[in-house]
């Protein structure tokens, strides 16, 4: 329970008797921090009651994981924590944190959605020079992520799962971002979408899961360092409608892995891809646009000029012969 995990909440102090031969407590801070990084944040906080040695260790743990799905976990004989307790818990953990760098910050809010507080939590992670940022946000209205995300000099991994339009600022600069995962987001327009990918200067892995492309017409994903590209185009809410797809050009000269799964309602062109080691293509049935999809399949396969291992589903081959 979130409220009961806070050592600074108004509750009776829990005492713990530690043995004089407690070897773990004798370990240096760096090792204890490493141990704490493998357990949930709410349990990290609980360690503060063990002894004076442990009192403040949780305030500098490198990994923070906040997931409101725990609200729905049934606890026998106890009432589940309410949403206010969860939000207050996150507030206080970040308030009492020291100035050390955050290695990984994961935030999953499927129930508790307070835009101003979520904005504040993410901004706090950026201020602490977070390296890996993992966001899962189920929003009811358009939500604007902190613009500081898009110019972070510390981020190496960024994962965003968010069921709304991704509001992209005009200036984007990810000097050290190597991994980008986008799920369920709707791309805003050609220009801003292209700026997003162009701003990832050293990107090596790109994963696009169930994203919405309907606002786009022609977009170029140009990334000279990109090595792995996965596009899962099976929409979360079912097959795409009858609207025309867009053209997506992939300019990635160092691409070694490519995987596509979906209806291929968009035209995907691989440009200058000469170092592919593995490609995996699986196109699903879309009877309403079968002829158009068949052309898309041929265009996609034509872009694979050399490859070490190629897996093509039976349905994809049938489409290419249509």
Automatic annotation (TrEMBL):
Name of the protein this chain belongs to: F-box domain-containing protein
Classification lineage: Eukaryota, Viridiplantae, Streptophyta, Embryophyta, Tracheophyta
F-box domain ranges (all copies): 21-75
InterPro entries named in the record: F-box-like_dom_sf, F-box_AtFBL13-like, F-box_dom, FBL13/AtMIF1-like, LRR_dom_sf, LRR_FXL15/At3g58940/PEG3-like
Pfam families: F-box, LRR_At5g56370
Entry superkingdom: Eukaryota
Annotated organism of origin: Lactuca saligna
């Amino acid at each position: 329970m979130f409220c009961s995990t806070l050592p600074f909440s108004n509750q009776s102090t829990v005492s713990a008797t530690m043995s004089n031969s407690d070897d773990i407590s004798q370990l240096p801070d760096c090792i204890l921090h490493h141990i704490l990084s493998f357990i949930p944040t709410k349990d990290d906080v609980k360690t503060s009651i063990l002894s004076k040695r442990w009192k403040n260790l949780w305030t500098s743990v490198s990994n923070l994981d906040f997931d409101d799905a725990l609200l729905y976990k049934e606890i026998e004989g106890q009432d589940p924590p309410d949403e206010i307790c969860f939000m207050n818990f996150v507030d206080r953990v970040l308030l009492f944190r020291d100035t050390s760098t955050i290695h990984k910050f994961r935030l999953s809010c499927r129930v508790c959605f307070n835009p101003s507080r979520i904005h504040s939590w993410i901004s706090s992670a950026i201020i602490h020079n977070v390296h890996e940022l993992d966001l899962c946000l189920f929003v009811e209205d358009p939500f604007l992520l902190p613009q500081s995300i898009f110019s972070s000099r510390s981020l190496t991994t960024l994962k965003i799962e968010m069921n709304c339009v991704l509001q992209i600022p005009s200036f984007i600069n990810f000097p050290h971002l190597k991994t980008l995962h986008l799920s369920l987001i709707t791309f805003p327009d050609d220009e801003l979408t292209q700026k997003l990918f162009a701003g990832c200067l050293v990107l090596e892995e790109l994963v696009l899961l169930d994203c919405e492309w309907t606002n786009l017409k022609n977009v170029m994903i140009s990334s000279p360092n990109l090595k792995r590209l996965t596009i899962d185009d099976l929409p979360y809410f079912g097959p795409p409608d009858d609207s025309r797809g867009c053209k997506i050009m992939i300019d990635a000269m160092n691409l070694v892995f490519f995987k596509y799964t979906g209806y291929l309602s968009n035209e995907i062109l691989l440009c200058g891809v000469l170092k592919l080691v593995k490609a995996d293509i699986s196109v699903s049935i879309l009877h309403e646009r079968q002829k158009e999809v068949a052309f898309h399949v041929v265009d996609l396969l034509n872009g694979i000029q050399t490859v070490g291992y190629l897996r093509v589903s039976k349905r994809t081959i049938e489409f290419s012969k249509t």
